[in-house]
Design a protein that fits this description.
The chain is of the alpha/beta class and about 500 residues long. It has helices at about 20-35, 75, 120-135, 160-170, 190-205, 230-235, 255, 265-270, 275-310, 310-315, 315-360, 360-390, 395-405, 410-415, 470-475; strands at about 40-50, 55-60, 65-70, 85-100, 105-115, 150-155, 175-180, 210-215, 240-245, 260, 420, 440-445, 450. The strands form three sheets. The protein has a five-stranded mixed beta barrel. A five-stranded parallel beta sheet has the order 7-6-8-9-10. The chain has a three-stranded antiparallel beta sheet with strand order 11-12-13, with no helix packed on it. Helix 4 (about 160-170) packs parallel to helix 8. The N and C termini lie far apart (about 150 Å).
Length: about 500
């Protein structure tokens, strides 16, 4: 394998003296151009920069190495907009030397996109995830205070970005107070320091707005601002956050989460504070307009006052009082006349109505009705006493006699008894309900007997004389002349 600097192939310098750096660089350039007249390289673009001259400068890298590349203006005009940091491309060109810096680089003749780089893929995945969670929702973004008193800045204390922001802030608004939360803005551990700076400014209190950012750089340099922890810290901040990362063409996850995105750190400083000269000019304009308006108001009031002074009522106020007094007297006279006329007609109608009422004599009719009502009430009470006391006394006596006749003790005294079946506890009315061996209890007028059944005859009881007792009298139903409502006695509502 050929080596770049083979000691056996590199010619020794002339004996006259050492060669210059230019001469050494020229020999190296000739060697490179001869050894690598054409290259075809695959890598990921980083540090992409489209210069104002039209040339394009970028770095082609992979996991192990990187090489600088330049694409002249003639070829850059044909380059598509999809070529940017994080894009994997195929580059064709030749290797040469940039003499002023002594760096070798690829002079690109064509660039062809091949795919998306690993960082770009991670960027897109994180952006899609946070967008679904609502961290980019415009509705939650807060407005910046118009006149902040304290501004917190999270950035590197040694970078150019902090100097630019301090210069712009103090120039535009000298009264501003700046609180710096120093943090690394690239490399390993930078994201954790940025998160710590945001949280410390929130805990400090009194901060009106926070600027998080840094100057331009490659996609790798700006990557801490694409970390999820930084995005969530900005989202959780109680103070409005301005993201100012890189140049105007650079976009980071912080830009989408922050309340306001600034294209550069200097632009962030201009957004955060107003311009003192513009505020003074606005105050001057407002003062001029206020003075002009006040003069207009004073002039108008002076004209109105002059009109009032010219009015005859202000020159002779007694005339106004006299005319108003005469008007009140006229109103009083007319009012009294109208009231007398109205009440006169009303009084006549009231007298006519009183005469009609007297003719109908409602008081006399009322007294007669009251007397008739009292007489009717007296007669009703007398009839009630007569009906209840005399006419129903006999009926009540008969009812009491019948109730006394139906007393069971009276029935038992005439020789009757009641037999209770011991098995059921009920009164025995049929022979079929008793079975041989059942215990019977017979209640008499005086005392009770206890017996046991030896024989039950459902067909009927055979008397001592050989025949059953007659049922004719028991089955006959004779009308009771003393039952209420069947005799000639009158009822209560006859």
């Amino acid at each position: 394998m050929d080596t770049l600097f083979d000691a056996g192939k590199v010619p020794l310098p002339e004996a006259e003296g050492p060669e210059t750096v230019w001469e050494l660089t020229a020999r190296i350039r000739d060697t490179l151009e001869m050894k690598f007249p054409g290259v075809w390289v695959v890598g990921e673009i980083s540090n992409f920069n489209r210069h104002t001259s039209g040339h394009i400068f970028f770095t082609l890298k992979d996991a192990q190495a990187a090489v600088r590349c330049v694409l002249w203006k003639s070829g850059a005009a044909r380059l598509g907009r999809e070529i940017a940091d994080g894009v994997e491309v195929e580059v064709r060109g030749h290797v040469g030397i940039f003499e002023k810096q002594g760096n070798y680089q690829i002079y690109v003749s064509s660039v062809k996109p091949r795919g998306v780089g690993a960082l770009e893929v991670a960027f897109r995945k994180l952006k899609e995830k946070l967008e679904k969670e609502g961290l980019f929702d415009p509705a939650r973004k807060r407005p910046l205070p118009r006149f902040p008193r304290r501004v917190g800045i999270v950035t590197s204390p040694t970078g150019a970005a902090i100097r630019d922001m301090i210069h712009v802030l103090t120039r535009r608004w000298p009264a501003i107070e700046i609180v710096l939360a120093p943090a690394r803005v690239q490399g390993e551990g930078a994201a954790a320091e940025i998160v710590s700076g945001i949280r410390n400014l929130n805990r400090l209190g009194g901060i009106d707005v926070v600027i998080v950012g840094r100057g331009g750089g490659s996609l790798e340099d700006l990557w801490p601002f694409n970390e999820e922890t930084v995005a969530r810290a900005i989202f959780a901040s109680d103070v409005p956050v301005v993201s100012a990362v890189g140049h105007e063409t650079d976009f980071s996850i912080s830009d989408f989460v922050a309340d306001v995105r600034a294209p550069t750190p200097s632009a962030a400083a201009e957004i955060v504070v107003p311009d003192r000269r513009e505020v003074l000019a606005t105050i001057s304009t407002i003062g001029t307009r206020l003075a002009r308006n006040l003069k207009y108001v004073v002039d108008r009031l002076r004209d109105e006052l002059a009109l009032f002074e010219a009015n005859r009522y202000f020159r002779y106020p007694q005339e106004m009082a006299i005319s108003r007094h005469q008007m009140l007297e006229d109103y009083e006279s007319r009012f009294l006349t109208a009231m007398r006329d109205k009440w006169s007609g009303t009084w006549v109608r009231l007298e006519q109505a009183a005469g009609g009422l007297a003719r109908h004599a409602p008081r006399a009719r009322l007294q007669a009705a009251v007397a008739a009502t009292k007489m009717a009430a007296f007669r009703l009470r007398a009839a009630e006493r007569n009906l209840l006391t005399h006419r129903w006394a006999a009926t009540l006596d008969r009812i009491a006699g019948r109730i006394d006749d139906l007393n069971p003790d009276r029935i038992f005294a005439r020789g009757y008894s009641r037999t209770v079946l011991g098995r059921t506890g009920g009164t025995l009315t049929r022979a079929a309900d008793a079975r041989p061996g059942d215990l019977l209890r017979t209640h008499l007028a005086e005392g009770a007997l206890q017996s046991r059944v030896t024989e039950a005859s459902p067909e009927g009881f055979v008397g001592w004389h050989g025949h059953a007792p007659s049922r004719d009298r028991a089955s006959r139903k004779e009308p009771r002349p003393d039952k209420p409502g069947t005799g000639a006695e009158p009822t209560l509502f006859e």
